[in-house]
Amino acid sequence: TPAERTNLAGVQHIVLVLSGKGGVGKSTLSTELALALRNAGKRVGILDVDLCGPSIPRMLRVQDSAVHQCDSGWVPVCVGQDKAIALMSIGFLLERPDDAVVWRGPKKNALIKQFVTDVAWGDLDFLIVDTPPGTSDEHISTVEALRPYQLLGAILVTTPQ
């Protein structure tokens, strides 16, 4: 719908960060990529859809921040003194940062779709999407929710095993 498209209308490029297993450094790579792009003068957002292990708020030292609502949806947390990185994560919606998210597939998939459609990103050069580990339904939900938008590509993080 047109209302859904408006929240990502100002995003120029979307990059997925994926892996086939956990513990390979997806969140670290997503964070470092966002910081490098910011240092290159780009406007950057990170969408942390790792629902069971949202570590990016802690990596960027904003784990105690709160997400607010505006007319067009959730306002992402702005990171750094220059507020140049916008971040949305389930970590901001939990009562305590270490709380576990024990949800079945449909609820996880609905939240992913809501993150894609209901976050007011504004104008960004890049949106980095940090996905959960493995090859779950959440990946399919993320790609399906982002299908109407211009994906730049994906970064597949692996380990030499």
Automatic annotation (TrEMBL):
GO MF term set: 4 iron, 4 sulfur cluster binding; ATP binding; ATP-dependent FeS chaperone activity; metal ion binding
Highest taxon in the source lineage: Eukaryota
GO cellular component: cytosol
Any one biological process term the GO annotation gives: iron-sulfur cluster assembly
Keywords: 4Fe-4S, ATP-binding, Iron, Iron-sulfur, Metal-binding, Nucleotide-binding
Keyword Nucleotide-binding carried by entry: yes
InterPro entries the UniProt entry points to: Mrp-like_CS (IPR000808), Mrp/NBP35_ATP-bd (IPR019591), P-loop_NTPase (IPR027417), YlxH/NBP35 (IPR033756)
Pfam assignment, any one: ParA
Keyword 4Fe-4S (UniProt): yes
Gene3D superfamilies according to UniProt: P-loop containing nucleotide triphosphate hydrolases
SUPFAM superfamilies membership: P-loop containing nucleoside triphosphate hydrolases (SSF52540)
Protein's UniProt name: NUBP2 factor
Organism of provenance: Donacobius atricapilla
